[in-house]
Amino acid sequence: MKCTISSCLIFYKYDSIQNTLRNIFILLYILPALASGQSAKFYADTTRLRSFVGHSQSEFDRALKMEWIIKGQVLHWGSPAIDVSPTETGVDTIFFKHHDEAKWDTMICKIKGGSLITFVYNTCCDYFDVVDTSGDRLEGKVSFVLKGTKPRRKKYMGSIDGSGVFMTKQPDTLSPFFRSPMLPNRYNVEVKEVKNCSGKDCQEAAVRKPDGSVDESYHYRIIESILVLHYLPVSADPIAVSYDLSSEKVLVK
Questions:
Q1: Residue 51 in 3-state DSSP?
Q2: Going by CATH, does the domain composed of 139-252 fall within 2.60.40?
């Protein structure tokens, strides 16, 4: 896969439950910021980390192995803050590794120029949270929309951590309805074709209906998994996910 300096086309391939393979295109418009644009600052604050594991040097040293890579720059707990140039259009990518032997996690985000983003230690899950300048955790928001003509009997669900909407031609912005406040504010975002399910082997989600009410226990079966990604909110702006039924392309921006 080759990326130009103006854009990067990433191909994902998923198995459907019918054991067929389909190329799913996720087009991430990653354009360099204008030279005059404001940079964003990232910092990993150790205050909460020290108060929680400071009594154990070994635990503290283990936590210090957490590592982020943002726009090619490396960040650790307590290291100097880094300045990055936001993408002019589209989304950015943050890579995170929990420890030396762990695999890198890839997280989609939307960096906003002029912002200060702080990572703080999550004491519940030995992970991290993202907070704004007031110290409040940033909430994940995703706008889902369908492009093209939807077959009459098909359903496409956009979801963020177990909360979903049935996608239509009208953009619908969604945050999780029911989620433990102790969980890190890193989210799982999915697009999938589903159908109603009763009996065995059903999955469950809280789904917002067109009238605004919430079905807290919608049971479904996955016909096809179209998109799965990790999302890290680093601003109050939602990311937008659209699925083009004609081209079978997913656009994240």
A1: helix
A2: yes
